[in-house]
Amino acid sequence: MKIEFAPRSVPLERRLQTATVVQWVFSFLGLVHACTLLPSLRTPPAGWSGQGMWGKWFCLDDSVESGEDILFFCPGDEKSQELSMDWSLQLVKTADLDPGQNYIFGFHPHGVLVAGAFINFCTEATEFSKVFPGLSPHLMMLDLWFRAPFFRDYIMSGGLVTSDKESAYYILRKPGGGNVLIIVVGGAQEALDARPGAYKLLLANRKGFVRLALQHGTPLVPVFSFGENELFDQVENPKGSWLRCIQDFLQKFMGISLPLFHARGIFQYSFGLLPYRRPICTVVGKPIKIEKKPNASQEEVDKVHQIYMEELSKLFEGHKLKYKVPEDQHLSFI
């Protein structure tokens, strides 16, 4: 295989962007493991003592459920903007959102590493606070990631919260409005189908977020991130293959998916785990008004879910040609 190396003449700005992306990818693939082992690095009994102290703090601290930031920077400040990844990113607003109201954003697709959701809603790379003034985003993430010491604090500093009912209820019940709960509806399982040219969404039977909206009377906002699936290639894993069977088993057992992805490297463009430099445009649709029904029937949930899928399809069809999606490509829901 011929290796295409990066030219020496790459501008410093591009090199700094690459360094930032390296840090971001390492956060997902390596930092969590390092943080998990950190309390045990010292020999017993000191290592056991470190784990014990962490366990006590984890059990007593309720900032995970409350969704409060606990480190030194939050989305919107200068430091978080410096840590963002800036490579041809856009956040497009199709309707104004009332800062006195809470909202639930349904984000699609998951992609391999949820790049669009993290960049747009956990940093100021696309100036979320200016596009949607008065709103504070809170991206939901699997509970598993919050069990690693220090890594938990690292992700909470970006406004991430656990994907459980307690966190959702806390955010949506805050008085005065101004909060956005972002749910990546397809979840980790959808990552196994993330590859260039794929427009298959795991949504047909995902209705928990709809019931949550009905319980609180919170408007639903469909969001589609064009370019999300173009960042990485993935090893072929069709349904029924031995690889997909193993991945599905691990996803059910561990709660996280393990897509075998690849793209480019740091100093060459032929192979590696860094994403391709592809544009991402995240389009935020119009809010769907939801009547509050704490005890909604399954029929009522199904009706709102159908409306949501129709609005998401309209959003995709209305913008796809702008972002070089072939005209004959349409969303499919599984």
TrEMBL record:
- Enzyme Commission number(s) of this protein: 2.3.1.-
UniProt KW NAD keyword? no
Q: Which GO terms describe its cellular component?
A: endoplasmic reticulum membrane
Keyword Metal-binding among record annotations: no
Mind telling me which InterPro entries this protein's record contains?
DAGAT
GO-annotated biological processes: diacylglycerol biosynthetic process; triglyceride biosynthetic process
Enzyme class (EC, first level): transferase
Localization, per the record, is: Endoplasmic reticulum membrane
The family assignment reads: Belongs to the diacylglycerol acyltransferase family.
Query: What's the protein here called?
Result: Acyltransferase
Q: Which organism is it from?
A: Phrynocephalus forsythii
